[in-house]
C-alpha cells in the first residue's frame, strides 16, 4: 500500500512517481522470480534491476527490500542480492494453509455460487485447454490462478484468495517446474473439471475431495523435482 506524505506538491509529485515505479519494478521482479526467469541462486544488483526494468536504483532497492520480506530474495551486504532457493519447509506450510482455505471455499460454493462466476469458470477451462494445446504454460498458469480466484469470488469469499495469493509465492516456483512433466496440463484441467462438477451437483464431500486431490499433485511430485533440480532447492 502506498502512503502519501504531506510534503509540498512538487516533492509529493516526485515521491508518488517514485513509489509507483517501485511498485512496478517489484511486480516485474517478483514475476520473473516466480516464473524462474530469474532462477534460485541468481545474483541481482540494484543497477542490474534498473537496466532490466528501466528504472533508477532507488525503485530497485525498494523492490529488493519488499521481496526480501517475502523471502524471495536474500540481501547480501555490499554484494547486492541473490534469488532465494525454494524452501520445501515454507512450501509445505503454504500448501497446508492453502488446502485448508480452498477446501472450505469449495464447500461453501456448494451451498451458494454466483452464476456469473460459474460462467467465468467455464471460460477459464476453455482458455486452459487452448493454452495446453499450444504449450503456453505461462498462459495456462494465468488462467489457473484466475480459476481459483473465481472460485473464491463466486462463493462470496474474495478475501480467501487474497490470503492464498500472499502464500503462493512459496508454491509457484515449484509449480512452474512441475508443468513440464508429460500430461500434467491435461491432468490439471481434468481436476478443475471435477471441482466444477462437484459444485454443480452441490456435493461438498466430492468438492472437498476433488480440491484436495488437485492441490496434492505438486506435493506428490516434489521428490522428483528436488532430485532433478537439486541446485534450485534449499
UniProtKB/TrEMBL annotation:
Keywords: DNA-binding, Transcription, Transcription regulation. The keyword Cytoplasm does not apply. GO terms for molecular function: DNA binding; DNA-binding transcription factor activity. This is GntR family transcriptional regulator. The keyword Transcription regulation applies. Residues 19-86 form the HTH gntR-type domain. Pfam families: FCD, GntR. It comes from Rhizobium straminoryzae.
Amino acid at each position: 500500500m502506498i502512503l502519501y506524505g504531506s510534503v509540498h506538491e512538487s516533492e509529493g509529485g516526485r515521491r508518488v512517481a517514485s513509489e509507483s515505479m517501485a511498485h512496478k519494478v517489484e511486480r516485474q521482479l517478483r514475476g520473473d522470480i516466480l516464473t524462474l526467469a530469474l532462477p534460485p541462486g541468481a545474483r541481482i544488483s540494484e543497477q542490474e534491476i534498473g537496466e532490466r526494468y528501466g528504472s533508477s536504483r532507488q525503485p530497485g532497492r525498494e523492490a529488493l527490500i519488499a521481496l526480501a520480506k517475502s523471502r524471495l530474495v536474500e540481501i547480501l551486504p555490499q554484494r547486492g542480492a541473490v534469488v532465494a532457493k525454494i524452501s520445501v519447509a515454507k512450501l509445505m506450510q503454504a500448501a497446508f494453509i492453502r488446502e485448508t482455505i480452498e477446501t472450505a471455499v469449495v464447500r461453501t460454493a456448494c451451498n451458494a455460487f454466483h452464476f456469473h462466476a460459474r460462467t467465468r469458470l467455464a471460460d477459464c477451462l476453455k482458455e486452459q485447454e487452448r493454452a495446453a494445446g499450444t504449450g503456453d504454460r505461462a498462459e495456462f498458469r494465468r488462467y489457473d490462478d484466475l480459476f481459483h480466484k473465481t472460485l473464491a469470488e463466486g462463493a462470496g469469499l474474495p478475501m480467501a484468495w487474497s490470503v492464498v495469493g500472499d502464500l503462493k509465492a512459496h508454491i509457484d516456483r515449484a509449480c512452474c517446474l512441475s508443468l513440464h512433466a508429460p500430461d500434467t496440463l491435461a491432468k490439471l484441467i481434468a481436476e478443475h473439471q471435477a471441482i466444477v462438477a462437484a459444485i454443480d451437483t452441490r456435493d461438498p464431500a466430492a468438492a472437498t475431495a476433488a480440491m484436495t486431490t488437485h492441490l496434492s499433485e505438486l506435493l506428490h511430485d516434489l521428490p522428483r523435482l528436488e532430485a532433478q533440480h537439486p541446485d534450485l532447492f534449499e
